């Protein structure tokens, strides 16, 4: 029997197939990983190699600290080392509004009320300064007194701190205020020498950089830059003479009911300013009542027509150019001159007088006669040579050059007015320089406000014999002429008075005057020149011989003792009372 074989089943070769798109998903994932890895590598390379400073800075901000090593502002002292301006340490109150907000310090209203009363402020106004927690620093009160600083410490308000600053202090107060000047609350110069030499006085603060850890401990000293100390200003001013001059000037301005006054004392041999004062003045230690008109250094900023104080220069010019000699006689009859329809007159008919008597009696007719013979070019040459119309060399802020014009045509009357001090203007310091040239034998020496260690170079401008002759003539002005009130017992004094009417802005002259006196002491061996200006005296004694000359006498008398200058006049002179000594000075 045949056996049937069972049929074979069809076997299909089943192949394993990948899902659709699997390969592309793999490639995409791999690419993304590579791309991300590349970005991370690039970012790491950028941070570590290309621009590491930014993140290094972020780290340093969290760990590096720096402290400023402050320096005090340099001192200003007089020629003998007396302090005129010093810096003293004081406390300043400041606050950290963020720290105040975090500690809830504003809730303690009693402490804030006490703090506001300490600063003489409204409490709401004080709180408004610290109510912004985004701020980290705000001043509450600058440079408080020691008692106020101690009270702030006792209040112990969280977020309110003290820091040490410096405050400028002026020991001499109003006496030297115009010359020294002032600083603002940040110690920056605002007026006078404080402003002019601000960089010189400031110096450069030092700096210390170090690293701290999370606990605030110093773990590394990075660097330290030493502070550059400021420089000191040593002035030529002698504070003893400065105080004397200010005291006498202030009394005179008050006694004469004047608008203002100035006085200058110059060392003849060195050109150093020993004193420069003005009245009214101001107290630089009290800023509550500062007024601009009190802060002006009038000795260098205000120019006046000098009146008869220029007459010695007219005589000097005549001697220099040979139009007159020492023994010449000037005929002033009949006591007046008519020039171009205008009249020049003396207070009385002096007749025929010598050059000495021209100055002794302050004769307008005498100097006019000399000027007309001399010529305008020669007279202007002398005025320019004496320093009129130019700076004095002190290089102080605001110094005026005065007014001395040059033009082609001058009338005879204009020349006449130039000879007795009208038609030009000079400052008190310029007049002092002119008289210093007469006193030191005709040499032009620049003036200075700083102490000189040696005699400076000078230029011979006028003949020494001629300046000596003029100085002897000016002695007669003090001994017997219009300036007897300028006499100083024991000393020979040479000088000249001046009284000029002030011009009005609308033209012509008004009823206000300027009284001046310029003098040399002692005449035998000149040591100092002193010029006094009294502006707009309010009394009837508005003449240079009665308003300004007594101030000169008081200043010189005390200065001679301070400088230990021996007397050069041992003759006993009778006491003289100051009288009505206006003379020709009052004639415009």
From TrEMBL:
Chemical reaction(s) catalysed: Preferential cleavage: (Ac)2-L-Lys-D-Ala-|-D-Ala. Also transpeptidation of peptidyl-alanyl moieties that are N-acyl substituents of D-alanine
Q: Where in the cell is it found?
A: Membrane
Q: Does the keyword Hydrolase apply?
A: yes
- Note the superkingdom of the native organism: Bacteria
Q: What is its EC number?
A: 3.4.16.4
Predominant place of localization: membrane
Q: Which residues form the Penicillin-binding protein transpeptidase domain?
A: 261-556
| EC top class named in words | hydrolase
UniProt cross-references to Gene3D superfamilies, sorted A to Z: 3.30.450.330, DD-peptidase/beta-lactamase superfamily, Penicillin-binding protein 2a (Domain 2)
**Can you give the residue ranges of the Penicillin-binding protein dimerisation domain?**
71-222
Similarity section? Belongs to the transpeptidase family. FtsI subfamily.
Task: Enumerate the HAMAP family for this protein.
Answer: FtsI_transpept
Q: Mind telling me what this protein is named?
A: Peptidoglycan D,D-transpeptidase FtsI
Phylogenetic classification of the source organism: Bacteria, Pseudomonadati, Pseudomonadota, Gammaproteobacteria, Alteromonadales
